Amino acid sequence: MPQMISGQKQGLGMVYGMIQRQAMMLSFNDIYRTLAIVMIILIPTFLLLRRTQPASGMAAH
Questions:
Q1: For residue 54, what are the CA distances in angstroms to 6, 7, 46, 51?
Q2: What is the pLDDT along the chain (61 residues), one digit of tens a residue?
Q3: Count of alpha carbons within 13 angstroms of residue 24, beta-carbon side
Q4: Least crowded by CB within 10 Å, which of 2, 35, 36, 42?
């Protein structure tokens, strides 16, 4: 009887570990997807920024 109880706990521990690994992978995928979307949005905004003309005839500090 004690072997059944300890075996059941080991089985539950294995299931818990598998669920934890899958949850970590899903969260990694969500973070990667979110960062990709943010970068897709930010890249065109960088193209819209104005370039400043270098000041001619002024002494550089």
A1: 75, 74, 19, 9
A2: 666 667 788 888 999 999 999 999 999 999 999 999 999 999 988 888 877 777 666 655 5
A3: 6
A4: 2
Other beta carbons less than 10 A from residue 45's beta carbon:
8
Amino acid at 15: V
Q: Position 42: which residue type?
A: L
H and E: helices and strands count for the chain: 1, 0
Q: Whole-angstrom Cα distance, residue 61 to residue 51? A: 20
